[in-house]
Amino acid sequence: MDLNSASTVVLQVLTQATSQDTAVLKPAEEQLKQWETQPGFYSVLLNIFTNHSLDVNVRWLAVLYFKNGIDRYWRRVAPHALSEEEKTSLRAGLITNFNEPVNQIATQISVLIAKVARVDCPRQWPELIPTLVESVKVQDDLQQHRALLTFYHVTKTLASKRLAADRKLFYDLTSSIYSFACSLWNHHTDTFLQQICTGDEAAAANSLERTLLSLKVLRKLTVHGFVEPHWNAEVMGFLHAVFERLKQFLECSRSIRAESICRDRLEKTIILFTKVLLDFLDQHPFSFTALIQRSLEFSVSYVFTEAGEGVVFEQFIVQCMNLIKMIVKNYAYKPSKNIEDSSPETLEAHKIKTAFFTYPTLMEICRRLVTHYFLLTKEELTMWEEDPESFTVEETGGDSWKYSLRPCTEVLFIDIFHEYNQTLTPVLLEMVHSLQGSTNMENTNAILIKDAVYNAVGLAAYELFDSVDFDQWFKNQLLAELQVSHDRYKPIRRRVIWLIGQWISVKFKSDLRPVLYEAIRNLLQDRDLVVNDFEFRTDQFLPYLESMFTLLFQLLQEVTQCDTKMHVLHVLSCVIERVNMQIRPYVGCLVQYLPLLWKQSEEHNMLRCAILTTLIHLVQGLGADSKNLYPFLLPVIQLSTDVSQPPHVYLLEDGLELWLVTLENSPCLTPELLRIFQNMSALLGKSFTN
């Protein structure tokens, strides 16, 4: 392509490609696709997206096409690869100026420079890093920020390379720029803190953005740039400085208004500090040994004492708890049963842990977890009252323990209790004993404390096996609590039935189960139960089968959320599987309802998987009588095993199992059953392809 003549044409076509009119858009996209392999096309794109006078949408599209072209045609071995001459020109043009005014485009340019760096830096592009280092020193705010943004994306990309030769190059790069990166971070951090003190929020926000970017660079260099980082004084100095900076930033949060432009960035920076520590611990556990004591002191102080009041926020608490958890559970810090087989590094780390986790410290952590972090909040209680389904789904499903406070506190409790159960068992049992007897219905806090303690006993069920006579507790206390009908006691009724669900596979006499089934039935009648997966003996359960099945089916009809329907279906499936043919007198209503539920769940493939599982157990329970289900059953199998239908990705495995049990229970091979075999050739072809 001749750059001068081509620029006008490409610009025109890019403009057409931003059109909302498909008649204009489609031909433009086709033309751009044809040009992708033309020499000079990417040079034209570079000229277009670096021309700030052009339309933003056109420049944005030019950047995207350039970025996609790097993935497809930059490597030498790629079909239609760019010439070395053009790549040299493009590399030079990409780092000529760091003055892109539009944030979104600046980010995309930084990402595409990083993509080129992944392939070419440092061998074919030795000038990239020196240029970036010089550019982040300039006084112009825009150029400094854009260069720092690019510096971060390049560092992030190079740190992700895993081949030994690439790792060696990154180690060399890190050793050459680490001192500079540290001084850059310290400079921007000090500038931010000074501007906050003087009340210049606008300037502070800009400095904080640079602090955040320079810290992101340091995170990648520190975690991935050294083989044995504990031998490097600058690395360990930076990591120790992280704790001091964290304290400074947390104190800053007291003086920054919630609606301030700095607030969100400040919290992101605080979280990034904790990510530096977590990543370093994950990648270099023995190098982290020197930081164990300080990490535990810092985290426990802010999360479990008054030091954190008024400054901590939920995500920071989660990160601190994750840090404690990773130290407690780290296998590198656990000596072998034969001490002589343990390394000196392991013994040193274990010694530090043991010295920190004294009885008073463990007792305070345990009590604080249970009586503070386990308590249901006002928001949760309101949500439960107004939308019980959403509350239950959020609590039982929720986010990963790494990111959400409630599951994070529970996982930390389980891990600490497992590690120090001999110390903590008496503490928890004392809390249980203090709650025996009736609870004042007017005392909401007492009810919430009991809910939290019962939660702890359920989570620690396996650790408490030898310390709790659960059968006696059930007969003397828990059963009576299930029968308290006061509306304010709803959290306790719900928690007790959950607690029994936790213990039933640990320690629960079979002769107590009929009493339990009676209590469950009463709770189901009152719609006052989170459905749990209980183990049960079929002979003991049969007297309650009709009423339980009917109540579960009614619940299935009443609930509206997909996750709740899946959970109820799962319990119904378990019941059907266990009682097998004895379910036949009671399944008529379910058989009539499932076609409607299947139709309603067209956009919810996971719910359809639950329906398939239920059908599998139904067919097995009905045996030859399952032929009455064929008008619904066979089209379901047909759809689930048709690899030309998009839902097969989710439904195929359960659909094949349903097909198999249907054949096994069919009294004869009908024409309708034979028709499903039209799917078989495609299924076999798919299996051979895979």
SSE layout and pairings?
Layout: H1 3-17, H2 22-35, H3 41-49, H4 56-73, H5 84-94, H6 103-120, H7 128-135, H8 141-159, H9 164-198, H10 201-224, H11 233-255, H12 261-283, H13 289-304, H14 314-329, H15 344-356, H16 359-373, H17 378-386, H18 388-396, H19 405-419, H20 421-433, H21 444-459, H22 470-482, H23 490-503, H24 513-525, H25 538-541, H26 545-558, H27 562-579, H28 588-600, H29 605-622, H30 630-640, H31 648-664, H32 671-675, H33 680-689
Helix pairs in contact: 1-2, 1-3, 1-4, 3-4, 4-6, 6-8, 7-8, 8-10, 9-10, 9-11, 10-12, 11-12, 12-14, 13-14, 13-15, 14-19, 16-19, 16-20, 17-18, 19-20, 21-23, 22-23, 24-26, 26-27, 27-29, 29-31, 30-31
Structural notes for this entry:
With 690 residues, this protein is mostly helical. Helices cover 71% and strands 0% of the residues. The chain folds into 4 domains: 1-120 and 139-145; 161-334; 357-503, no CATH class; 552-689. It has 33 helices and no strands. The model has no long low-confidence stretch (mean pLDDT 91). This is Importin-11. Belongs to the importin beta family. Residues 28-100 form the Importin N-terminal domain. Interacts with UBE2E3 and RPL12.
